Amino acid sequence: MEGKSQNALERFIKKTRELFAREPDLDRRWTALAPILAELLADPEVLEAAKNWPDCVPADGRAENLLFYEDPDYGFAINGLTKGAARQGQRTRIHDHAHIYTLYGVLDGHERIERYERIDDRSRPGCAELRKSTDRLVGPGEIDLVKPYEIHTEVTVGEKTVAVIIRSQKGGGFHQGRYNPETNGYYESLGPRQTPVEMLPKRA
């Protein structure tokens, strides 16, 4: 399907595949993907559909992501993340995404994004000293590019938040870094569970 016959998700996938086909440099590729994601976040059909996406519930020590799409050729995955009233005042564990690139786009609501940098020499197994480098409030339409091994967390601020996340590889099948700045602890565990969901209602 082409042009106006395509829905927002189909247009995003088409433009992303075209970008990946012509841009081999990963940093440039993922920077150039941000405005394409911005179009998806601004689409009224996506915002309306997101009202019916299920809440993501952590279980067994793992977060949950909604899985909308995984590309058969380029491997990128389109996720959703909803944090309802039950999760207000909570933060995700401070973590990295291991070797993958991630674009985190806020669709609805507000939350804080904190970034951290390591200040130790990485010589002690199970230890990681961190320093907070940024702490900013983000809202609808804002996009955060998280490159491989960059350390961060998201913090709820008293309202439901919904995000669309584009990853260079579907999470959940490999270990990611976890950090505890209070104890300088570090360990690795599997990333989020993937729950297949339709992003948009099926056409009649």
Descriptive terms for the model:
204 residues; alpha+beta; three-stranded antiparallel beta sheet; 19% helix
Compact description:
The chain contains 3 helices and 12 strands; from the N terminus they run H-H-H-E-E-E-E-E-E-E-E-E-E-E-E.
Would you give an account of this structure?
This protein has 204 residues and is of the alpha+beta class. The protein contains 3 helices and 12 strands, in the order αααββββββββββββ. The protein has helices at 8-22, 26-41, 44-50; strands at residues 64-70, 77-83, 94-95, 102-108, 111-118, 130-138, 143-146, 151-156, 161-167, 175-180, 185-190, 193-196. A hairpin with a 4-residue loop joins strand 10 and strand 11.
Which range best describes the helical content: under 10%, 10-25%, 25-40%, 40-55%, 55-70% or over 70%?
10-25%
* Biggest β-sheet description: 6 strands, mixed
Low-pLDDT regions: none
Structural class: alpha+beta
Note the total helix count: 3
Task: Write down the overall geometry.
Answer: globular
What is the H-and-E element order? HHHEEEEEEEEEEEE
Number of strands: 12
Strand-residue proportion: 35-45%
Q: Indicate the mean pLDDT.
A: 93
Strands across the major sheet, in which order?
7-4-9-2-1-12
Please tell me how large the radius of gyration is: 17 Å
Termini separation comes to: 16 Å
